[in-house]
Write a structure and sequence with these properties.
mainly alpha
Length: 128
């Protein structure tokens, strides 16, 4: 398979963006003293947006979010990553950031995304 390095970078960037948002939400929740009602509402909204974005991406498994033929990289890396992350995104959007479930749920998302990013980066390094 010929590797489109721009597409590989775009896939990695999208997965990394989601990973970074999950990490940011987990880090923000770790400081329990800063969790005001307004902060909690904002964090829940961000969590909901992240979850919805990943679920939407999993519908068509393409970077464009449209039903169209998948490229090789989408078929072997982006599709499986968004399917797996979406399926394992068990954290409910009404969970309080004060709950231990918040950090655990976001860690699962981070793990799925890290695994996918690492696999893509190794594939590109070995085949380019």
């Amino acid at each position: 398979m010929d590797i489109d390095l721009q597409e590989a970078a775009a896939i990695a960037a999208e997965l990394q963006r989601w990973h970074d948002e999950a990490r940011s939400l987990a880090d923000q929740a770790a400081d329990k003293s800063s969790l005001s009602p307004a902060n909690i509402d904002s964090m829940k909204h961000r969590l909901s947006s992240l979850k919805n974005e990943i679920k939407e991406a999993a519908k068509h498994e393409t970077l464009s979010r449209r039903k169209m033929a998948k490229t090789g990289l989408e078929q072997f890396f982006f599709g499986p990553a968004v399917r797996s992350t979406s399926a394992n995104f068990r954290l409910r959007t009404d969970t309080s950031p004060k709950s231990e479930l918040w950090a655990r749920g976001l860690h699962e998302v981070e793990f799925e995304l890290s695994y996918a990013i690492d696999g893509l980066q190794r594939f590109v390094a070995e085949n380019s």
